[in-house]
């Protein structure tokens, strides 16, 4: 199969993590005080003078200070907060902020939603530079970023005129340290031993280690920060139950409801290793010149093995036209109220699965920023950056079943239970063999399947800006103007093959290697277990699969974006009250194109000879995005904030792909097809935000905010009339008309999103001196949307479904105590039901309904305050304390299709700094 070629060029090198002993690296670090002026003004507002790995209140106060002094409406996290909590990645920390939620993947927070919009509507920056993604679209997978290597996070909920790369729902700016903002050399070491999957039948374990070094040289003209963080470990044996939904069956001449049409039950075990590296070199010879070079690298390796049992039960619709087709019949049932509360299905042809998934994700970000004063009133800035992410994966499935095609089973069930009974002993390797159990290979044999997905994403960007201070007494205090150019290219590619048992035909079998067995999920069914990858070359031949749908998984999307921006900061009064803030304007010109395959499914007699030709298309557009942020200080430490803006988000890359395929609908007598649309315009919206904020210095605050986003345009997938003339080949059947139906994303009218958010942070000593050391941080948000989309989720009925990523109710509550070196914190975060995304067996992302979840984390700690052990601290943490189950369902919550139990994670940590 000829794969698409990306003509944008390839990087000539890859950065690999060096051995831990070759350098000293960064652990939990204090906030950066001198990030890029336009990109991270929050860090400038809250300089921190030393690395702090303990200090709950100090972290809270630093975050309050950031929020208070920002022009935009923001949420913030300081390094103290990140360092104090046992978060594997920055995603876990972000998910505790007001109006922010995360979807769990493998038990870990990964994708982040802001204000009820899917991850693709937000943008992730690192030190003000847009980040690429190892996923299929734009949504950054935040578990790629070790929390230990970041100094702070600012989430912009309203636009900033000088912030390039903003999202429709918000912008997440991750920040690293600037070493010259530290008063002295600082070294910190952090180690955590963890036990994973506590409460499951089999537990896992792991280690987390980080070390930091920050120093200043040449009379504090040169600064250096180096950091390394490593995560390694195994998960517990998580269980997953996948229901195929209920249905109706015939029993004793009547129609009864049955709880299961079929099911899959699996046990998973995962190994993971993540290495993170950060380095910053800063040169500041005087107050008028500052140049900073920073590097951030992360490699995340994951290996998961899965074994389980799949059983189609109520498949009464199949015929008897082949040995593989035997309809299941309900027998031995107990019926109450028209429903079978227990019973069995015969003619079951079960599949035993042993699968393996491997992925290697790596990300490299390089940035060089130089700021210098040209004159007493003018300052200039130049920024060059390169960001690359790659994902290489391999997913392997193997199938086993009875050695004879005529040997079928009877499987018993009880409604509401995951315990099933079988008539056959599938752990007996004399009964169970590797084979094409269900005849999926057709005329060939499919005793397994393998996929190798690849993603490569790159951004090259350059930015120039200048800032002029204006005379005192004017309405505006300064003006910032600049231009940013970015060139992004993303490529996705799939290679797929059937696994055929060596030396045999469609009914060939092979013995299952080894002697291991395991229980399939929580069903009680014992199945044979073996290493699918290690046995592959000895047992199987790989037969490359060239189905048209596989061609349509390969695509390249390119974007070239030129942004001209200006921002003017306000320093004035209104009605005698101090007025501050900023107004800004961005003009963005976007040129986008995509290259993929056009597949003529009607042009040949088999998958291998159907024409698949490269196809390219694209468009360009210009957006003018004004923004205004006003802060009116109505009383001492009380402010009203008002934000007005126009915002946009470019289409998802999967929607922008040039892939298309078509065939003939024989019933309608027309050409029909589906694909992407590289000529899409972006999502566009107008935003209004209003908030009231009350501060007590940086000790405490409360805020109440409301927001409204009017979506002028939205992107929706729909079927429309389409002229297939450009794609018809001589081998295509000739129809009366070349006009047919094509399903693809298009631009349509939008709707609105609106919500309210309330936040409070209070140390209880402000209430009573007897409560000194105690405190709480709480937030809640309620968000609704008028956007209605066709229900494309699993089991969707075609009627409307909620906006993807939208949880109407989200909130978190943190209670803490810290005094005399002792600390304790319990954090509870909640999100209501929402539509998320999961990967299908084809490798594509699909919407799915995800049930509400509540995650509780606990941490206890002690730090020596004086003596020879000063600055040594210990911590004990329990994540997912209540063992929250991840659940997906079809349309209604009583139709659960997947339940996954991850168990608790217990960590014991040791921290030391000097």
UniProtKB/TrEMBL annotation:
Keywords: Cell outer membrane, Membrane, Receptor, Signal, TonB box, Transmembrane, Transmembrane beta strand, Transport. PROSITE patterns: TONB_DEPENDENT_REC_3 (PS52016). Residues 295-881 form the TonB-dependent receptor-like beta-barrel domain. It is found in: Cell outer membrane. Residues 68-170 form the TonB-dependent receptor plug domain. Residues 1-35 form the signal peptide. Its main location: membrane. It is a multi-pass membrane protein. InterPro entries: Beta-barrel_TonB (IPR000531), Beta-barrel_TonB_sf (IPR036942), Plug_dom (IPR012910), Plug_dom_sf (IPR037066), TonB-dep_rcpt-like (IPR039426), TonB_rcpt_bac (IPR010104). Belongs to the TonB-dependent receptor family. This is TonB-dependent receptor.
């Amino acid at each position: 199969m000829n794969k698409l070629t990306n003509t944008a060029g390839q990087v000539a090198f890859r950065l690999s993590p060096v051995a831990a002993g070759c350098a000293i690296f960064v652990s939990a670090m204090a906030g950066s005080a001198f990030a890029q002026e336009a990109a991270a003004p929050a860090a400038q507002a809250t300089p921190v003078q030393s690395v702090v790995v303990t200090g709950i209140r100090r972290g809270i106060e630093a975050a309050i200070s950031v929020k208070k002094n920002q022009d935009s409406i923001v949420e913030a996290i300081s390094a103290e907060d990140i360092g104090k909590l046992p978060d594997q990645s920055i995603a876990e920390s972000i998910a505790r902020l007001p109006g922010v939620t995360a979807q769990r993947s493998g038990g870990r927070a990964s994708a982040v939603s802001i204000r009820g919009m899917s991850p693709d509507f937000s943008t992730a920056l690192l030190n003000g530079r847009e980040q690429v993604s190892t996923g299929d679209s734009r949504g950054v997978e935040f578990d790629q970023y070790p929390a230990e290597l970041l100094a702070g996070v600012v989430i912009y909920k309203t636009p900033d005129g000088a912030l390039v790369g903003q999202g429709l729902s918000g912008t997440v700016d991750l920040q690293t340290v600037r070493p010259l903002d530290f008063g002295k050399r600082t070294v910190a070491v952090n180690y955590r031993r963890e036990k994973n999957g506590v409460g499951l039948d089999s537990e896992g374990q792991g280690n987390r280690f980080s070390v930091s070094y920050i120093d200043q040289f040449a009379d504090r003209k040169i600064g250096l920060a180096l950091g390394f963080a490593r995560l390694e470990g195994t998960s517990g044996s998580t269980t997953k139950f996948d229901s195929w939904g209920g249905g109706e069956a015939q029993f004793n001449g009547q129609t009864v409801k049955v709880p299961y049409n079929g099911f899959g039950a699996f046990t998973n075990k995962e190994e993971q290793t993540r290495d993170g590296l950060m380095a910053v070199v800063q040169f500041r010879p005087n107050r008028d010149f500052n140049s900073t070079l920073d590097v951030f690298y992360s490699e995340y390796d994951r290996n998961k093995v899965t074994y389980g049992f799949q059983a189609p039960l109520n498949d009464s619709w199949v015929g008897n036209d082949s040995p593989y087709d035997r309809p299941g019949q309900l027998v031995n049932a107990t019926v109450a109220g028209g429903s079978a509360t227990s019973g069995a299905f015969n003619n079951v042809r079960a599949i035993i699965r042993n699968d393996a998934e491997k992925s290697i994700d790596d990300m490299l970000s390089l940035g060089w920023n130089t700021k210098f004063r040209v004159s007493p009133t003018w300052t200039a800035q130049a920024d060059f950056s390169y960001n690359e992410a790659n994902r290489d994966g391999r997913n392997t499935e193997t199938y086993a079943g009875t050695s004879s095609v005529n040997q079928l089973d009877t499987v018993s069930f009880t409604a509401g239970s995951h315990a099933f009974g079988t008539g056959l002993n599938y752990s007996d390797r004399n009964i169970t063999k590797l084979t094409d159990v269900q005849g999926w290979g057709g005329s060939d044999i499919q005793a397994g399947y393998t996929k190798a997905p690849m993603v490569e994403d790159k951004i090259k960007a350059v930015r120039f800006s200048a800032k002029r201070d204006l005379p005192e007494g004017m309405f505006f205090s300064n003006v910032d103007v600049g231009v940013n150019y970015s060139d992004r290219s993303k490529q996705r590619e799939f290679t797929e093959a059937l696994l055929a048992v060596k030396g045999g035909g469609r009914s060939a079998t092979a013995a299952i290697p080894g002697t291991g067995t395991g229980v399939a999920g929580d069903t009680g069914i014992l199945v044979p277990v073996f290493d699918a990858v290690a046995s592959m070359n000895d047992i199987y031949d790989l037969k490359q699969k060239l189905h048209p749908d596989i061609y349509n998984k390969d695509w390249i999307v390119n974007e070239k974006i030129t942004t001209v921006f200006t921002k003017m900061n306000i320093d004035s009064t209104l009605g005698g009250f101090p007025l501050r803030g900023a107004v800004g304007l961005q003009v963005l010109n976007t040129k986008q194109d995509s290259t993929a395959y056009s597949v003529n499914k009607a042009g040949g007699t088999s998958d291998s000879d159907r024409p698949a030709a490269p196809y390219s298309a694209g468009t360009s557009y210009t957006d003018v995005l004004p923004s205004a942020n006003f802060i009116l200080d109505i009383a001492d430490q009380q402010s009203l904030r008002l934000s007005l803006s126009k915002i946009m988000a470019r289409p998802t890359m999967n929607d922008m792909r040039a892939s298309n395929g078509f065939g003939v609908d024989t019933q309608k007598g027309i050409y029909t097809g589906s694909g992407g649309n590289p000529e899409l315009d972006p999502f566009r919206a107008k935003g209004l935000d209003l908030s009231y904020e009350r501060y007590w210095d940086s000790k405490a605050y409360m805020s109440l905010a409301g927001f409204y986003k009017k979506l002028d345009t939205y992107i929706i997938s729909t079927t429309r009339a389409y002229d297939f003339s450009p794609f018809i080949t001589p081998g295509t059947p000739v129809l009366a008309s070349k006009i047919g139906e094509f399903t693809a994303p298009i631009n349509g009218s939008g709707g609105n999103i609106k919500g309210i958010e309330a936040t409070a942070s209070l140390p209880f000593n402000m209430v009573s001196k007897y409560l000194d050391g105690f405190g709480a941080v709480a937030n809640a948000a309620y968000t609704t949307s008028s956007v209605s989309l066709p229900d494309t989720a699993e089991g969707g009925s075609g009627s409307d479904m909620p906006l993807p990523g939208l949880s109407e109710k989200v909130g978190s509550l943190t209670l803490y105590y810290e005094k005399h070196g002792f600390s304790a914190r319990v954090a509870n975060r909640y999100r209501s039901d929402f539509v998320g995304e999961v990967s299908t067996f084809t490798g594509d992302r699909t919407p799915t309904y995800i049930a509400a979840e509540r995650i509780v984390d606990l941490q206890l700690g002690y730090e020596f305050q004086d003596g020879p052990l000063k600055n040594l601290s210990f911590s004990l943490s329990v994540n997912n304390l209540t063992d929250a189950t991840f659940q997906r369902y079809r349309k209604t919550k009583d139709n659960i299709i997947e339940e996954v139990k991850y168990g608790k994670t217990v960590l014991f940590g040791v921290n030391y700094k000097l």
